[in-house]
Each structure stands twice: as structure tokens, then as C-alpha cells.
TrEMBL record:
Signal peptide: none annotated. InterPro entries: NAD(P)-bd_dom_sf (IPR036291), SDR_fam (IPR002347). Gene3D superfamilies: NAD(P)-binding Rossmann-like Domain. Keywords: Oxidoreductase. This is Oxidoreductase. It comes from Streptomyces endophyticus.
Length: 308
């Protein structure tokens, strides 16, 4: 039994989807397969050059695809607000919070947040909140956030969300991926309390061979580490097309329930997408509420559309 695959994606005609970080890796595959199933897909990417190149590639691979590029820098809340404002007049059926950075040297976003926490969590938190009215205007809206099995590296530190006391690149990455899951948990809880039809779920790709692993080594000129990740990708990683399947299942399968978390079947590493293990701290209501309150304060974005 092979399990769930891209051929199981239900018909997406008439639905509009936004995929962040859709220019490469699992984000690109997610956008391409949604378009192949009939969705109108917005490729939301930081780089216009890479975003338009991805759009050209997608439309060549899926003739007749309904797709467009739109600039979005999750490390700049002004960019997030501009992107969302341009999409308030039409219902949005699906938001895939896919873009992310991993294990970068310490840095700050345009708004002064530690880069991994700022891009991976706060940027997507703000984007979801600002797009919420458009999502709730759709008949069966869904939000999917892409986390990682490496969320197990660390719980969040609510007293040091920006890692100002001590910075470890992998700990900070784990915390940002835990934040993704706590965000999904809390948003799903709030949607239920508001009797909203919104389905909020999460996914992780296992070990998918993409550009993400080697990017920090490239930034720092660490050739040995870059080569290490390249070899790891070649021999141990599954293709991006396989890594995207948990996201696609969470985004489209009719049996997905609020706060579900999908990942690869085999040791959370590779294989067909199934419901995945997650650390107990990612389903802690009190932690979700504390992170939510801090995120609202840091971004200035609220979720009033849910009646909060």
C-alpha cells in the first residue's frame, strides 16, 4: 500500500491559494500541485527574480495553470501588511505558511526580531491575522503552517523570544518551529470557540533535499558544512516532491481536522504523509495563549475577525 500521493488531491477549481516561499523546494512543489489540481495560486516570495522564474517554470510544467507572483518579505512587517492589503477584496480559500529560514547566524529582521523567530513565526502570524477576513469570507477556508520534526529540539522561552540572552542557531530554529505548532494549536482552538469554519493544520517534510539545509553555510562561506549538507541531501533526503506531500495532504484532504499535524510515515523522515508525533509542549493551551499575546504585542496584529 503506497499511501496518500499527489494524485489524491481533490479538485481545486474555484479555490484561491497563497503559498509563501513558493519559489523553491517544497513550497514550489506545493504551489505547482495545487495549480495542477485547478487552484488559482499566488506565489508569495521575497525575491522578485526568483519568484518570477518559479512562475515561468510552473506555467511551463502545468500548461494552463492559473498562477501569479506577488512580493512578500516575511522579515518586514510593512511588506506583510502591503501583501495582505492587496488581497482583502476577494475570498481566500487556502493559506500555506511555508517559507522559512534555518540555523542562520544571529541576525535581526527589519523590525528588530531575531531572524528565525521573526521570519518563521512572527511574519506568518501577522500574515495570517491580516488575511483572516479574506479567509473567513471563503466557504471552506484552511490555513496550513509548515513546521519541522526539529521542533523537538527546544520549547519556546517566553521570557527570551528573540534569543537576546543566549543564541544557539539550532535551538533558535527548534523554538521557531515549536512556535509554528503552538500557533496552529491556539488558532484552531480560537476558531472552534468562534464557531468559524476555518480548518487550521500543520505539516512537516521530514528530511527533504532542498536548498534550506545549506543556506546558512553558504551565507557564512563555510564550504565544508555546505558540502556536508549536499552529501546528506543526496544520500538521505527524499525529493522535494515527496517532502511536499504532508503539506499538500494537510491543505487539501477532506479528512483533515483542526490542529492535525502531518509528516512522513517512516520515522518522521520519509514516505507517504500520515499524522505525525509532536512534542507535548506544542499542545499546551497556556503556552499557546502566552505566545499568542506576545505575538500580538510584537507585531501589532490582532485577530478581531474571530471575535477576540
Amino acid at each position: 500500500m503506497s499511501g496518500w500521493s499527489a494524485t489524491d488531491i481533490p479538485d481545486q477549481h474555484g479555490r484561491t491559494a497563497v503559498v509563501t516561499g513558493a519559489n523553491t523546494g517544497i513550497g514550489y512543489v506545493t504551489a505547482r500541485e495545487l495549480a495542477r489540481a485547478g487552484a488559482h495560486v499566488v506565489l508569495a516570495c521575497r525575491s522578485e527574480l526568483r519568484g518570477t522564474a518559479a512562475l515561468e517554470r510552473l506555467t511551463s510544467e502545468v500548461p494552463g495553470a492559473e498562477a501569479e507572483f506577488a512580493p512578500l518579505d516575511l522579515g518586514d512587517l510593512a511588506s506583510v501588511r502591503a501583501f495582505a492589503e492587496a488581497r482583502q477584496d476577494h475570498p481566500l480559500d487556502l493559506l500555506v505558511n511555508n517559507a522559512g529560514v534555518m540555523a542562520l547566524p544571529y541576525g535581526r529582521t527589519a523590525d528588530g526580531f531575531e531572524t528565525q523567530f521573526g521570519v518563521n513565526h512572527l511574519g506568518h502570524f501577522a500574515l495570517t491575522g491580516l488575511l483572516l477576513p479574506a479567509l473567513l469570507a471563503a466557504s471552506a477556508p484552511r490555513v496550513v503552517s509548515v513546521s519541522s520534526g526539529l521542533h523537538a529540539l527546544a520549547n519556546i522561552d517566553i521570557a527570551d523570544l528573540n534569543s537576546e540572552k543566549k543564541y544557539g542557531r539550532w535551538v533558535a530554529y527548534g523554538r521557531s518551529k515549536t512556535a509554528n505548532l503552538l500557533f496552529v494549536h491556539e488558532l484552531a482552538r480560537q476558531a472552534r470557540a468562534a464557531n468559524a469554519s476555518l480548518v487550521v493544520a500543520a505539516a512537516h517534510p521530514g528530511y527533504a533535499a532542498t536548498e534550506l539545509q545549506a543556506r546558512s553555510a553558504q551565507m557564512e562561506g563555510r564550504k565544508g558544512m555546505e558540502r556536508f549538507f549536499e552529501v546528506g541531501n543526496r544520500f538521505f533526503g527524499q525529493p522535494a516532491a515527496s517532502g511536499a506531500l504532508p503539506t499538500l495532504r494537510a491543505a487539501t484532504a477532506p479528512d483533515v481536522r483542526p490542529d492535525d499535524f502531518y509528516g512522513p510515515r517512516v520515522a518522521m523522515w520519509r514516505g507517504a504523509p500520515v499524522k505525525s508525533w509532536r512534542a507535548s509542549w506544542t499542545v499546551n493551551d497556556a503556552a499557546g495563549e502566552r505566545l499568542w499575546a506576545a505575538s500580538e504585542q510584537l507585531t501589532g496584529v490582532d485577530f478581531k475577525a474571530l471575535g477576540r
